[in-house]
Design goal:
Number of domains: 2
Number of helices: 14
Radius of gyration: 20 Å
CATH architecture of the largest domain: 3-Layer(aba) Sandwich
Number of strands: 6
Distance between the termini: 26 Å
Length: 333
């Protein structure tokens, strides 16, 4: 079987790759760092490839839960701090970058581990992406201004009229992807679904052009996850999330319409700093958005039956997860 790049199972650069995924605040980074230390003790050098659409941006540290500087120095990471907040970065570019990173990592005699929760990026790796037209800052800003006047519920209704197929697969609160679909229509006069029909995804989110081990951290106890999300978001605020966003907005090239500024936490902080919400509303909206993100991530994962599910709320989760990952890595040492 060959993928659209003509690579077969036997020669795909990502053959037998290990990936650690899961919803926000599920413990992916903790598992990755623990695995790195354990693998090192077993003579296996690891390098982490971040699969997070917000960690790519420089200056966005607190609201993205970016690894601390000492962690970045100790553990080789890729895909972090590779773009300015006003620059674009896509799933398609991520897929290209990963191929290069994996090649370089293996040349150094180490093994790559993909870690993150941006599941569209994983899909781009597994199946490729339709060739959607790139947006422009002007189009994004125009749609953001229209949304500020009409509200996102009205923008979602607009998408339902012009592209009901795409609207049906997007939650009404997923403003980033609603905006992207409207951008495609604004620039081409064609619905996003048209481009997917030309070059569709596989019907299954599990179809892949390479073998892999996908470790998915999925807590059975949803309350456990919500409590972790709340704790982490409040810690971000205590560390200075609002000040971080305020400093970012002082840059002349940064505005609220950018994909980076629509990230969870940043969008809500901007609304508060601009006087649209009070502090309590800011906290509430940030927590709701974080829980909604986790729900979307879990929905993606449930459509991937080949994943190995590990419950991070269990006491022995870390030991079990590290051992499963280590057993896989040892096969290719």
């Amino acid at each position: 079987m060959a993928d659209r790049l003509g690579m077969t199972f036997s020669n795909h650069p990502l053959e037998n790759i290990l990936a650690i995924v899961g919803p926000t605040a599920s413990g992916k980074s903790t598992l990755a760092l623990t695995l790195f230390a354990t693998a090192k003790q077993n003579g296996i050098g690891l390098e982490i490839i971040s699969m997070d659409s917000a960690l790519v941006y420089r200056g966005m540290n607190i609201g993205t839960a970016k690894p601390e500087k000492n962690e970045l120095l100790e553990v080789p990471h890729h895909g972090i701090d590779i773009r300015e907040p006003w620059e674009t970065y896509s799933a398609a570019q991520f897929a290209k970058d990963v191929i290069q990173w994996v090649s370089e990592i293996k040349q150094r005699g180490n093994q790559p581990v993909i870690v993150g929760g941006t599941m569209l990026y994983w899909r781009a790796l597994m199946q490729g992406l339709s060739d959607l037209p790139a947006s422009t800052p002007e189009v994004r800003l125009a749609i953001a201004k229209e949304a500020s006047i009409l509200g996102w519920s009205e923008m979602y209704s607009k998408l339902q009229e012009i592209d009901p197929t795409t609207a049906s697969r997007l939650p009404a609160g997923d403003t980033q992807r609603i905006s992207r679909a409207l951008e495609v229509y604004s620039m081409t006069g064609l619905p996003m679904s048209y481009f997917f029909e030309k070059e569709p995804y596989s019907n299954s989110r599990d179809t892949s052009s390479f073998k892999h081990l996908l470790i998915s951290l999925e807590p059975e106890n949803r309350t456990w996850l919500h409590e972790r999300i709340e704790k982490r978001f409040m810690q971000m605020i205590e560390k200075g999330l609002l000040n971080e966003v305020k400093l970012l907005l002082q840059h002349p090239q940064i505005n609220e319409s950018l994909p980076s500024m629509r990230a969870v936490g940043y969008r809500q902080a901007i609304a508060h700093l601009s006087g649209q919400t009070n502090y309590q509303e800011f906290v509430y909206s940030g927590l709701v958005a974080s829980r909604q993100l986790a729900k979307r991530q879990l929905t993606w994962l449930r459509a991937m039956p080949s994943r190995t599910i590990i419950d991070p709320s269990k006491e022995n989760f870390l030991t079990k997860a590290v051992q499963i990952c280590l057993d896989h890595l040892k096969q290719f040492k």
